[in-house]
């Protein structure tokens, strides 16, 4: 599938900012699941943009505006071709116990995705869920799909009830949230089991009314989970929609949790006050 994506972020300052610095992760990834055909970034005010690849392999851009400005507009436009990924869960005929033995030989390489992180705590509650779902003789793939479905049913999709600071502990009590919360909770259970898992940020094609997916129509930004399988492949699971990653998912960045993949972060010098406006469009072309 080919998608046209536009992402416009506008900050309007209460009083003129004297200067600002921003870092962005809004560049779609080139990977086995997708090819970036074009990408451009437009800034207002216009200043030079610099790029680097971060620790997790994400293409990251940054810029500074060393003069007064009343607003900042960042707009990205991309054309991305997603590819079919037939039977992503095939060929892994292992029990949970057998998979954990294999993971043990790769703990050093997978270290970052096995430990707690800024927004993902490993709690007694997540370990209890792990023991119920990931019974040692159960097939690994069966257990992963069961967890994906459990998170989907355990949480209710409720925008505005949580924010980025909402902890895993709070989620277990609230039982509601948005895609980042579904992803954080699923990763917490996976890491409590000893299964490497990472957070994925990206876009999803707005869902049609007749679709079996559950995320609301018109929601374009998205987050899901990638699990490292014993066959050395990262495979995506979308607990918000109780599905595996498909051609309608477009990857932007990966990391330990949301903190590693925030689309835009920065600082400015000036009066404390700003208004944020975001407009995103994902269309099949």
Number of strands: 15
CATH architecture of the largest domain: Roll
The overall pLDDT, averaged over residues, is 93
What's the helical proportion of residues? 10-25%
Largest sheet: 5 strands, antiparallel
How large a portion of the residues is in β-strands, by DSSP E?
35-45%
Q: What is the end-to-end distance?
A: 8 Å
Radius of gyration (CA) equals 20 Å
- What order do the helices and strands follow? EEEEEEHHHEHEHEEEEEEE
Instruction: Give the helix tally.
Output: 5
Q: Which class of the largest domain in CATH terms?
A: Alpha Beta
Number of domains: 2
Structural class: alpha+beta
CATH topology of the largest domain: C8orf32 fold
């Amino acid at each position: 599938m080919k998608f046209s994506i536009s992402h416009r972020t506008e900050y309007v300052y209460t009083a003129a900012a004297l200067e600002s610095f921003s870092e962005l992760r809004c560049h779609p990834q080139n990977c086995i699941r997708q090819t970036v055909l074009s990408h451009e970034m437009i800034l207002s005010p216009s200043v030079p943009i610099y790029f680097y690849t971060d620790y997790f392999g994400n293409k990251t851009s940054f810029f500074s505006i060393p003069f007064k400005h009343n607003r900042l507009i960042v707009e990205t436009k991309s054309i991305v071709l997603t590819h079919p990924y037939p039977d992503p869960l095939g060929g892994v005929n292992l029990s949970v116990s057998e998979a954990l033995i294999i993971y043990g030989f790769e703990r050093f390489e997978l270290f970052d995705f096995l430990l707690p992180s800024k927004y993902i705590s490993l709690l007694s509650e997540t370990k209890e869920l792990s023991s119920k779902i990931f019974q040692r003789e159960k097939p690994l793939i069966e257990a992963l799909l069961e967890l994906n479905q459990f998170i989907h049913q355990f949480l209710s999709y409720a925008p505005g009830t949580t924010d980025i600071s909402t902890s895993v502990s709070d989620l277990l009590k609230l039982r509601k949230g948005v895609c980042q919360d579904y992803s954080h909770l699923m990763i917490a259970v996976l890491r409590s089991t000893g299964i490497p898992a990472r957070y994925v940020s990206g876009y999803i094609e707005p869902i049609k009314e007749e679709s079996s997916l559950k995320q609301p129509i018109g929601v374009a930004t998205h987050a899901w989970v990638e699990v490292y399988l014993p066959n050395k492949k990262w495979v995506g699971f979308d607990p918000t929609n109780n599905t595996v990653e498909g051609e309608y998912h477009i990857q932007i960045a990966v990391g330990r949790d949301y903190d590693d993949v925030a689309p835009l972060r920065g600082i400015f010098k000036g009066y404390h006050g700003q208004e944020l406006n975001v407009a995103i469009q994902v269309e099949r072309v």
